[in-house]
Write a structure and sequence with these properties.
Blueprint lengths: L1 H8 L5 H5 L12 H12 L4 E10 L7 E9 L3 E7 L3 E11 L4 E10 L5 E9 L8 E8 L5 E9 L8 E17 L5 E21 L4 E20 L1
């Protein structure tokens, strides 16, 4: 009975969420290594419990192959919470938001002594249009009103077959800190800055594609927009 209720509440993974992650292409020769690598990449997704890819000769054509992908979803909605003498925490994480394969993680904390609260949220997309370009949007503010927010777009070296990779992070942060001006004097200082982080890389197969030589280049810029001492 509980299994039936759980299945009725669970949103099944959409077909495009699976096809966005496989390395096989239409109208190309079937490569068994790409089949195995696609299985591995799918299995690494947190919203998939198991996967199997089967290939057989098409009934309508002797020079074509039908590829069937079988996947079993993991339970995607994960509420959590914790309570201590001075803090309460609520968490709600979704590993497969609306069946899209996207992740949405949220955490809320409240200090029971002074009613201050903190909050964080992160929304992640694992692959855009079968490119393995991932993107994340995030925001976090703590009990002291320090915060950061930003966007991250990456294409990692997700497989030995990956030749090009790169990414960008654009982030805005605000934080307070106590700094020493003299031996016995500390003042409160505000820091507010933007971060621009870009990188790119290329992989070259060596020794019959058994080893890859990877080279990367990175550019990082931190621009302080506020640097204010407070007495």
């Amino acid at each position: 009975q509980l299994e039936t209720i759980g299945n009725s509440l669970h949103i099944k993974t959409k077909n495009f969420a699976i096809s966005n992650l496989i390395l096989l292409k239409k109208n190309t020769p079937l490569d068994s290594l790409l089949v195995k690598e696609s299985e591995r990449l799918l299995r690494n997704q947190r919203f998939i419990r198991s996967v199997s890819i089967e290939a057989e000769i098409a009934e309508t054509s002797t020079d074509s192959i039908d590829v069937t992908i079988y996947t079993l979803d993991s339970w995607s909605l994960l509420p959590n919470g914790a309570l201590s003498t001075n803090k309460i925490t609520y968490e709600l994480n979704n590993r497969n938001f609306l069946g899209f394969g996207h992740e949405w993680d949220n955490t809320y904390r409240e200090n029971l002594n002074n009613s201050n609260s903190s909050f964080s949220s992160r929304y992640s997309i694992p692959s855009i249009k079968n490119t393995y370009i991932t993107s994340s949007f995030y925001y976090q503010i703590d009990f002291d009103e320090n915060y950061y927010k930003g966007i991250q777009i990456d294409r990692a070296f997700f497989s030995p077959y990956t030749r090009w990779a790169g990414g960008v992070i654009i982030e805005n942060r605000f934080q307070k800190d106590s700094l020493s001006t003299t031996e016995d004097t500390y003042v409160q200082q505000n820091f507010k800055y933007n971060t621009f982080d870009f990188w790119g890389g290329h992989s070259i197969p060596l020794f019959n594609e058994q080893i890859n030589f990877i080279s990367t280049l990175r550019y990082l810029k931190i621009n302080y927009t506020e640097n204010l001492f407070q007495s």
